[in-house]
What we know:
Number of helices of chain A: 12
CATH topology of chain A: TIM Barrel
Order of helices and strands of chain A: HEHEHHEHHEHEEHEHEHEHH
Number of helices of chain B: 15
Strand content of chain A: 5-15%
Structural class of chain A: alpha/beta
Number of domains of chain A: 1
Largest sheet of chain B: 6 strands, mixed
Radius of gyration of chain A: 17 Å
Order of helices and strands of chain B: HEEHHEHEHEHEHHEHEHEHEEEHEHHEH
Shape of chain B: globular
CATH superfamily of chain A: Aldolase class I
Helix content of chain A: 40-55%
Low-confidence stretches of chain A: none
CATH class of chain A: Alpha Beta
Mean pLDDT of chain B: 95
Strand order of the largest sheet of chain B: 3-4-14-9-10-13
Number of strands of chain A: 9
Strand order of the largest sheet of chain A: 5-4-3-2-1-9-8-7-6
CATH architecture of chain A: Alpha-Beta Barrel
Oligomer: heterodimer
Strand content of chain B: 15-25%
Largest sheet of chain A: 9 strands, parallel
Low-confidence stretches of chain B: none
Distance between the termini of chain A: 25 Å
Helix content of chain B: 40-55%
Mean pLDDT of chain A: 96
Amino acid sequence: MNPIEATFERLRRSRRTALMPFLTLGYPDRDSALSLVPAIVNAGADMVELGIPFSDPLADGATIQAASQRALENGMTLRRCLDQATILRRQGITVPFILMGYYNPLLQFGIQSLASEAAAAGINGFIIPDLPPEEAGLVGRAFEDEALDLIFLLAPTADESRIRIVAGYSHGFVYLVSLVGVTGARNTLSLDLMDFVKRVRALTDKPLAVGFGISTPEQAGLVGGVADGVIVGSALVKEIGTSPKPETAAAAFVAALRAELDREA
Amino acid sequence: MTQSQKSTLFSNGPYYGPYGGRFIPEILIPAVEELEAAYDEARSDSAFQTSLHNLLTAYAGRPTPLTPARRLSAALGGAQIYLKREDLAHTGAHKINNALGQALLAKRMGKHRIVAETGAGQHGVATATACALLGLDCIIYMGTTDIERQKLNVLRMELLGAEVRGVDAGSRTLKDAINEAIRDWVTNVTTTYYLLGSALGPHPYPRIVRDFQRVIGVEARRQILEAESRLPNLLIACVGGGSNAIGLFHPFLEDADVRMIGVEAGGTGVESGRHAARFATSGRSAHVQSRVGVLHGTQTYVLQDADGQIALTHSISAGLDYAAVGPEHAWLQEIHRTTYTYATDDEALEALQRLAALEGIIPALESAHAVAEAIKQAPQLSPDDLIIINISGRGDKDMHTVAEVLGL
């Protein structure tokens, strides 16, 4: 069993919700992840989603766009993302790592090389927001050979047949986009979210993790009540970007999310 | 032509050989599927085709003339040159052909909120015009660099009732405007129609835009046969995304003796790295390289750095200033049906002045790139040879830029 699936399984048995914070690699400084990742894991992250910066992140809102831009200016590359993962593994961080990145930089790296080098760096899965299942044949085959999970996103606009297709192809878990829109912190959750999670739940046994717009421990708690995992991205990136002590701020925010999720459980 | 040659030459997507596709966020998949179904239905509906035809003739001024460029031809001393006059279409460029087609389609689909991107502003003006005519809400995304150099078109869009939203990210040009238009579409996907202006983006856009622009080539083919009783030897068109070029080229694809040249933006020279020449620089080992990649939903040639980050492009003409090229062009190049070259900023400026002085026609800076290539080609051909240049738009919008560069 792949570590991502195993983590969901272990949490399910203890009736807990997976907490998956998202960081943009290379932000705010090029090597920030080397201290941020241990901080958020100690604060209670069950898995970590690591963003590969891209010049044209068209599914992202202003916060992650700005973080990506800054990371690129800091000299962040896909190669360095893999190197940082390797270093973190050597430091003894064992939680699953999921890389999130747009397709073009991955394609230019070479899909076969990426699969083998990512696996060697201790990466467990990928989220590629501009690669729907229809276009993912090449990537899917290369990742399967290396036991990397290719995780697909499902949007609330999906009908039953689309849910079946996407959930069928998704490995590790299914990433449910909580709202109709781009990433970014929101004050409120979409009213249709609970219904959306239920619709998907009825059609697949795979773990369901919800992301996009989840900004506060209260919102995370509500989502944790229905989903198997909660992904918090922009709100955490914002905390990191606005604090003079990014590790402390990140750890405090993740700990607050963890506490609320465990209280709900 | 054999069936297999035909099937190599023609595609209705999603793929053109290895190019094209739908590399888009999952949330847009139902939207492009709905669009594809609606388009297929509209295409075979004679009422839709009649409405479009009526708008193109009674409103947009089609057919546009095919004008013999006698003084330019004489000055160059080679082939006889004809100009396909898209500059005379309503709003001053070929963009209106596609904008009217897609706006009609949007209305038919029950979508009353239109978003679009614009570079030079020509597609923005055409979209704002079509929306005003059909009573649709219109939001245009435009890079702030482009807003600065195309002020006149911004004013026109606003007068036409569109809201122009400046995009202050990346190079602040067309690429960034498309990012923002797609983000808007993602956010408002159930109510909004994305009216993409060039033959790019996810399937079915490259096909839809091409089909609505084919009228250029269909008319030109008929007009040259009427005027000369034979087909042209050479077609020349500028290529940003490539909609005016594919519109002219497509109806001639099966005419094996008709050569076709697409002209990209050479900027300050391809060695300088400040250009938008996707084909001309493919395989070069400069900092900015052109390789097959994925941008804005389609797989094609993309100017990028070694890490796959999209390059900042440069051209004196906003409409050619874009990092990727339409996927069908990538394919036609690969099978050697079309060829691509570039003209620099200086060559385009010189061509603009030459056409103005000799023919009384001021082309858009984009179209001036095609004229620049004709100036190179014509002297090498015989007086029996015929060239058609697509004058895709008129130059009024560029007077500010031209004045600045020429110190007028």
